[in-house]
Amino acid sequence: MPMYELRRDLEGVDWAAVTVDLARDAFDNGRTPEEFRRSFANSAFVSIAWADDHVVGTARLLADGVCNAYLVDVWTVSPYRRRGIASAMVDDLVARVPGHHVALFTEHAERLYGRLGFREERVGMSRISGKWLNRS
Ligand SMILES: CC(C)(COP(=O)(O)OP(=O)(O)OC[C@H]1O[C@@H](n2cnc3c(N)ncnc32)[C@H](O)[C@@H]1OP(=O)(O)O)[C@@H](O)C(=O)NCCC(=O)NCCS
What we know:
- With 136 residues, this protein is α+β, with helices and mostly antiparallel strands.
- 26% of the residues lie in helices and 24% in strands.
- The protein is built from four helices and five strands, in the order βααβββαβα.
- Helix 1 crosses helix 2.
- The longest helix is centred in the first third of the chain and has 10 residues.
- Coenzyme A binds next to strand 4, helix 3 and helix 4.
């Protein structure tokens, strides 16, 4: 029996608390709690892991409903890692976009994604439009 619950909505999320936990885990990329909320609200699909009445994991998918999807913000708060939470969130999101090519970038979690069926593609490229988060 998992010690967590996956939810597909953002009801009740304490975004300030989530961003504090992200910073503690050194996985904060500079978004304010409101910007973080907007990132999730504007995503096609979200998977949020809850345990002990707080958010212990996040993942979201940008998807066009036809063929392309991007997996973003996959994170499990440190004390809850290695229990299958990230795997469950990723599986939950991928299952909701049958027929899509699902892509992601990762610096540290190749083994995890490999186990979940992702295969490395030869070149990933990216650029920032203007300045990151529009900060001057
Ligand atoms: C990468 C990250 C999301 C993984 O989260 P997680 O919830 O621990 O992931 P899982 O539990 O599904 O899998 C992690 C490992 O635990 C193992 N595991 C899963 N369930 C387990 C269980 N019940 N008991 C023991 N180990 C278990 C998995 O096999 C996996 O092993 P691996 O290290 O060989 O890949 C998490 O470490 C994290 O948030 N890191 C910082 C942010 C980050 O790098 N995100 C990825 C960006 S793309």
